[in-house]
Amino acid sequence: MEPEFWHQRWKDNVLGFHLSEANPLLVANFKALALKAGSRVFLPLCGKTLDIHWLLSEGYRVAGAELSEIAVNQLFEDIKLKPTITNLGDLTHYSAKNIDIFVGDIFHLSRKDLGVVDAVYDRAAFVALPKAMRDRYAEHLTQLTQRAPQLLITFEYDQNLLQGPPFAISNLEVSQQYSDAYEVTLFASQAVAGGLKGKCDAVENVWLLKPAAQTKVFDEESIKLPQRGRWKVMLPVLALFILMGYLAYHYHWDAKFTAGGAVLAGLYTGLVTWLLGVITLIPIIGPLIAKILTMSFIWLLNAVGYFVSYIAIRRGYSKDVITYRGLTIALIIGMVIGYVFGSL
User: Fold this and answer.
1) Mode of pairing for the β-strands spanning 99-103 and 40-44
2) pLDDT tens by residue, 292-340
3) Beta partners for 211?
4) What DSSP string runs through 98-156?
5) Global pTM value
6) DSSP, residue by residue, 152-177
7) Residue 178 contacts by C-beta under 8 Å, 6 or more apart in sequence?
8) Dihedral angle, C-alpha 7, 10, 14, 18, nearest 10 °
9) 179-187 mean pLDDT
């Protein structure tokens, strides 16, 4: 539908879509979203719906998008709030306590302007758009709200008997439009009393859309690049290995001793890598344990322990070394446990 169509409807006060009370389907089914008090609910193409009054009275915050400035002015008059009006370029932002309405084309509304929303209640937007615009709208809304859960209301009837809006939406179309991002459930249905506009039988469907589990996309947000500071650690380690190789060659160290040390170092490194790989397979806490065990501080603490143990044994304090190493291991275990619990 062209914007002028809706502007004319508001100018002529032809508001067959406007209910004189909060939508009973909203009141009866909104709890399915399981939102906490104070959650922010987005209503696309909201008009001056009394559903906003109901949501505010239930302790929710409301955000909405509406094409007609007439509708938004009437809305704020009805809820007896004086809005602060801000120009956002293509949009105008009307705001008051617990409510933000963006006036203009919803396709010009960005995620930055809208802000975070906890859920979407779509009673009048999806059904108001022809098929070509619904394709674009569904994708835009999903990205705009970052796949926030939705309560979606649609009509099902013979489109040949009545010209929309509201348009007839089949169950198949709802699934096709949203199943890539959501788990789509037909939550409730009821016949429209007296038929749609009194002209044809129709069913009103309530859909619950919950974000579907998705495989992570490897982009700059989901995969972390190696830290540039790593070279500050690895360069000295590499220099140490080169120095040890030079000393072994220059002072003619025993070849078996040198080769054995290199093999043992390789085996130790491989064993640690394998063990960390196994640990990361443990659900939830595995990656946390592996993360702390690979921290430079842990390796430094353990290396100091080995060095002190070597000195102590050479000086005849073998029994004390056992106690010391036990305390060191206990300290590391305590740090791991504390880090895991602090991160959960």
Assistant:
1) unpaired
2) 666 665 666 666 666 666 666 666 666 665 666 676 667 667 766 766 5
3) 182
4) TEEEEES-GGG--HHHH---SEEEESSSGGGS-HHHHHHHHHHHHHHTTS--EEEEEEE
5) 0.61
6) EEEEES-GGGS--SSPB--HHHHHHH
7) 138, 142, 150, 152, 184, 209
8) 120
9) 95
Q: Structural domain boundaries of the chain?
A: 3-211, 228-343
Q: Where are the beta strands (DSSP E) in the chain?
A: 40-44, 61-66, 84-87, 92-96, 99-103, 119-122, 150-156, 182-191, 203-211
Does the domain formed by 3-211 have CATH 3.40.50.150? yes
Q: Which of 63, 73, 137 is nearest to 102 (CA)?
A: 63
What pLDDT was estimated at residue 163? 83
**CA dist., res. 73 & res. 309, Å (int):** 78
Q: What residues contact residue 173 under an 8 Å CB cut-off, 6+ apart?
A: 134
d(CA 9, CA 38): 33
Burial of 3 (0-12, 13-18, 19+ CB in 10 A): exposed
First-to-final CA distance of the chain: 49
User: Residue 81: phi, psi to the nearest 5?
Assistant: -130, 140
Distance of CA 278 to the CA centre of its chain: 28
Question: Encoding tokens for residue 134?
Answer: 């619904």
**Residue type for position 17:** F
Cα–Cα distance measured from residue 330 to residue 336, given in angstroms and rounded to the nearest whole number? 10
Find, among 337, 232, 229, 228, the residue nearest to 289 by Cα: 337
Residue 166, amino acid:
P
3-state helix, strand and coil shares in percent for the chain, rounded to the nearest 5: 50, 15, 35
Q: pLDDT tens, 66-111?
A: 989 999 999 999 999 999 999 999 999 999 999 999 999 999 999 9
Burial 270-302, CB ≥16 within 10 A → b, else e: eeeeeeeeebeeeeebbebbbbbbeeeeeeeee
